[in-house]
Amino acid sequence: MKGNAETLLFSKEVAPFIIPKEQVTVVKPDWTLDRALLVLTRRGQNSVPVINDENQIEGVISKTNILDHLYELSREKENELDFSKLNQFKVHEAMDLNHSGILSNSIFSFAFEILVNRSYIPIIDIRNQFLGILTRRVMMEKVIEYFHGEYLQTLADPV
């Protein structure tokens, strides 16, 4: 039974676990960095997807990306960090481009491996349209449910 349950979980599509785009905080690539930082801070997010007007993912922006961009600017001019300059720069100038999405029919094990180093993955369709996100938290909850079920099964099975 153990092998079958494991196979079912790790070969299952991730579609049922997606947080839909309507519930996801996103920013636009042409927003100013101060606006993006305000959204991140007010929503309690460390990073969010950057979605263009065609509903496609262009990358992600994080507080760290914004602060790193500001730091690099201050180093170039040998100045201190000047947060008032954030309104002069756009999200697309500081965002991380190395966060492409995965398809909603991707299997659990594939998404799980990616989420080891990310808190979420953008989910896209075959036309590259943003559908939502899959979070590491949701995936971990499913793994915990699986192991909890396995543990209960071992208690129920006579030795």
TrEMBL record:
Record-linked SUPFAM superfamilies: CBS-domain pair (SSF54631)
Record protein name field: CBS domain protein
Cross-referenced InterPro entries: CBS_dom, CBS_dom_sf, CBS_domain-containing
Organism for this UniProt entry: Baia soyae
Alphabetic keyword roster: CBS domain, Repeat
Domain CBS: 18-81
